[in-house]
Write a structure and sequence with these properties.
Blueprint: H1 3-7, E1 15-18, H2 28-38, H3 42-46, H4 50-54, E2 63-68, H5 72-75, H6 81-90, E3 97-102, H7 109-124
Parallel strand pairs: 1-2, 2-3
Length: 128
């Protein structure tokens, strides 16, 4: 999701995501992937985890995240946007984070198509 944004303060103005795996070092799918690609070193995993990176981020933050409340990955505890929100709040950056839980939406094209204009506007405000 926001890994490149958070690893490069000042390089990017904003970031947005649909149903991101926001805390991969703390969910079953992410743990399996990190173990397979990076080995067992959890400190190394944190270097690729947006929730861990936001804890020490310095700079302006403008993040938009949409998650459908009927998204099976969300229901299974794979996405963990609430962990990202809590970490941003703890770091004093919560004013720059907007997480929208879209009631009744899932992990489908319809969800993305419904809210895509908002994400384009989120990025475009820095281009105009």
């Amino acid at each position: 999701m926001a890994r490149q944004f958070l690893k490069n303060p000042g390089k990017y103005k904003s970031v947005s995501a649909f149903a991101p795996i926001a805390n991969p070092s703390r969910c079953p799918w992410g743990e399996k992937a990190f173990r397979g690609y990076l080995g067992d070193d959890r400190k190394l995993w944190e270097e690729h985890d947006a929730t861990e990176l936001v804890k020490s981020y310095e700079g302006p933050l403008d993040v938009l995240i949409d998650v459908g409340t009927n998204d099976n990955f969300y229901k299974q505890g794979q996405l963990l946007p609430e962990n990202f929100a809590a970490a941003a709040k703890e770091a004093g950056l919560d004013k720059g984070v907007k997480i929208r839980y879209q009631d009744g939406h899932d992990h489908s094209y319809f969800t993305i198509a419904t809210f895509m204009d908002d994400h384009i506007e989120h990025a475009a405000k820095y281009l105009l």
